[in-house]
Amino acid sequence: MRPWFAWGLKLGLVGLVILAGFAVYLDAVVQEKFSGKRWTVPAKVYARPLELFVGQKLAKDDFLRELDALGYRRESTVNGPGAVSVAGNNIELHSRGFQFYEGAEPSQKVRVRFSGDYVAGLTQANGGNLAVARLEPLLIGGLYPAHQEDRILIKLDQVPAYLIDALVAVEDRDYFDHFGVSPKGIARALWINATSGRLVQGGSTLTQQLVKNFYLTNERTLVRKATEAMMAVLLELHYDKREILEAYMNEVFLGQDGQRAVHGFGLASQYFFSQPVSELKLEQVALLVGMVKGPTYFNPRRNPERALARRNLVLDLLAEQGSITPEEAAAAKQKPLGVSARGSMADSSFPAFLDLVKRQLREDYREQDLTEEGLRIFTSFDPILQLKAEEALAETLKRLAGRKGVDEVQAGMVVTNPETGEIQALIGSRQPRFAGFNRALDAVRPIGSLIKPAIYLSALERPSQYTLTSWLEDEVFSIKGQDGQVWTPQNYDRKAHGTIYLYQGLAQSYNLSTAKLGLEIGVPNVLKTLERLGVERKWPAYPSMLLGAGALTPMEVAGMYQTLANGGFNTPLRGIRSVLTADGQPLGRYPFQIQQRFDPGAIYLVQNAMQRTMREGTGRSVYSQLPSSLNLAGKTGTSNDSRDSWFAGFSQDLLSVVWLGRDDNGPTPLTGATGALQVWTGFMRKADPLPLDMPMPDNVTQAWVDRQTGLGSASGCPNAVQMPYIRGSEPAPGSACGIQAPVESVMDWVKGWLE
């Protein structure tokens, strides 16, 4: 037997050497990954934080809607961060605190008092006045790596004590006593499985589970199981039990949200309860821990009965081991699952806006940085305005649904702050929550009459030649181009309107008078005005450009109208405010930029004409739904054969551009006034904006004129109205009422009015 024994000893020694080598290799693998960057964490994108101050225009219902989305708990008495109580117009809350670019915002108790749609009082819990309070921003999405894993990393000192107790009680009750592998646990599992006649319990420790999820695959072989056991022992040789437990809590798989895999208790807490893990109650902790065994099988949204039974079993185990009293377990069992509703702001994506954020970020960051480094992106996105825009679009399309072809109509919408150029809401489709072709950014469509303010601005920059009460001829004409083609524009109603005031050409969106004016100024000069307004596309100087043959996206139109709304100051549109690293260090800011490009006087006159568009022109239908005291400015746009329905308009604090049309460029039954304007009006009604109030520039003066002749008049005359003029271009003041205009002018006006 000696030769066989010798060979056996040699083979055993070889095996031990191989095993030792394999152990050394596994040890290197364990340490390299566990000591380095353990997870690739996607960038997190946040909405704007809601800032509270006395005098702020904010409806109480909108405030509560955002608190609900942030996962604040409605309680009779505020007890800890994330709690809110409501008593009439008074709201008390305990904010959570947050790390912003400028520094940390502390967690604090705040009392807010509302009066109408305004914040009337803002105090601390002790009664001291607060100048401003800032809530944490809503997480609106992430930029995911190829494996689509998502997690919110947490520290062990951030979790409720119940979570550690429950996890150990359910998954590995000997966790703090074994060395990575539990012989007692394996024996207990074998006994239970043998006596029950089926696989009831596994023998893997928490450390082994972490190794399997973190390093290995799910294949069920003896080799994989042996490797798992060795790596678990090695892991515990090098790292503390609490560090391993913290890693487990961040790694464990707890559900699937579409293509996104939900890993770790930090994200699972937000996904299922819209709350940070630190705020979880006993029954919520029990539910999440119970799901570890089977995230799909015990999914509380799909299988609430199974989830409830599993949660109660966890509560029983906690009581059995003395972590909680039987009374606490019984009380927790009476609580509902309390899972947040799907489709709320807290777990809904806003694909059009996230698409914009990605495009702007890619100009400054590598793709790997955006999907793996856990960057925190702070934006100007306003979730309340976004929902109101979506609701206005849905309601309008539903109301128009009876018209032929409306079901094929698509939509794009942009909402900005006129003063800052910050994008607050974005819609890329008639189904805003589905990712796909982003029409707000990519639908390049003829803008029709939206170009007209640029033509009238070009004219009013020449006050010695044109004023709002200059006479224009709205008559049929033809012009031959360099290519020999004859261009004969027409008004929408196929009529000519004779002699009209200049402002009427814009307010009523007359094509004939506008085209004549543009030709007088020169098409190249109009295109230069468009460039100064912010349009970067290069268009040929064809006469047809004067009536909107050129094509832009809704975002480009918003940039153009931003300059008109902001007093002639160009502010590039932006959606990102700042970027932080994963550990809260400032990385980059996107500051506010502004450049004056137009004389404020000329802009003031154009705004006056655009306000008349809303009062007496093509936009007048808005005041059937909005109060007459709300001063607004805007312009309708319709392309040939009603293929595109546009509206762009603004108040003091909101600018919005709406486009409706078909992706195949087919005709629709909608004009700018009957389509896009209806969406815009519905949005403004919900958003309740501030009335437009542009201060009159120093170079503008008001003059009394006769509404029929345009000549100077005295203030008390029957037909006297005030009109703004660039100083020096106003008509000579009338000395008395009844001054007659030249017969030709009067007859031209009468003819135009009658026609």
From TrEMBL:
Protein role: Cell wall formation. Synthesis of cross-linked peptidoglycan from the lipid intermediates. The enzyme has a penicillin-insensitive transglycosylase N-terminal domain (formation of linear glycan strands) and a penicillin-sensitive transpeptidase C-terminal domain (cross-linking of the peptide subunits).
Protein name: Penicillin-binding protein 1B
Any single GO BP term: regulation of cell shape
Domain Bifunctional transglycosylase second: 52-135
Family, similarity comment: In the N-terminal section; belongs to the glycosyltransferase 51 family.
MF GO annotations: penicillin binding; peptidoglycan glycosyltransferase activity; serine-type D-Ala-D-Ala carboxypeptidase activity
Residues annotated as domain Glycosyl transferase family: 147-317
Penicillin-binding protein transpeptidase domain segment(s): 412-651
Record-linked InterPro entries: Beta-lactam/transpept-like, Glyco_trans_51, Glycosyltr_51/Transpeptidase, Lysozyme-like_dom_sf, PBP_1b, PBP_transglycosylase, PCN-bd_Tpept, UB2H
Any one Gene Ontology cellular component term annotated for this protein: peptidoglycan-based cell wall
Annotated catalysed reactions: [GlcNAc-(1->4)-Mur2Ac(oyl-L-Ala-gamma-D-Glu-L-Lys-D-Ala-D-Ala)](n)-di-trans,octa-cis-undecaprenyl diphosphate + beta-D-GlcNAc-(1->4)-Mur2Ac(oyl-L-Ala-gamma-D-Glu-L-Lys-D-Ala-D-Ala)-di-trans,octa-cis-undecaprenyl diphosphate = [GlcNAc-(1->4)-Mur2Ac(oyl-L-Ala-gamma-D-Glu-L-Lys-D-Ala-D-Ala)](n+1)-di-trans,octa-cis-undecaprenyl diphosphate + di-trans,octa-cis-undecaprenyl diphosphate + H(+); Preferential cleavage: (Ac)2-L-Lys-D-Ala-|-D-Ala. Also transpeptidation of peptidyl-alanyl moieties that are N-acyl substituents of D-alanine
Highest taxon listed in the record's lineage: Bacteria
Keyword list, A-Z: Antibiotic resistance, Carboxypeptidase, Cell membrane, Cell shape, Cell wall biogenesis/degradation, Glycosyltransferase, Hydrolase, Membrane, Multifunctional enzyme, Peptidoglycan synthesis, Protease, Transferase
Localization in the cell: Cell membrane
Primary localisation category: membrane
Active site: E171 (proton donor), S449 (acyl-ester intermediate)
Pathway entry: Cell wall biogenesis; peptidoglycan biosynthesis; Glycan biosynthesis
